[in-house]
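DUF378 domain-containing protein, pasting as requested.
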Amino acid sequence: MKYLHSIAYALLWIGGINWLLVAFNWNLVYMLLGSWPQVVMIVYILVGLSAVYTLFTHKEYCKYCTAGQAM
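Structure tokens follow.
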């Protein structure tokens, strides 16, 4: 499960950075994979699924949440 958590965490970083760049009208995922629209859609689906996964499993892996501290 730690491996899955690491992948989800990396995808959250990719998604977050991409959204920051979208705010400046620069979509990195589309720039890199724009010629393959199906792959772009798969990347967005994986980023979204990783967000849902992290939402439900965050407390299990977060060292602050497991110690009973607020974020």
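Note for the archive: The mean pLDDT is 86.
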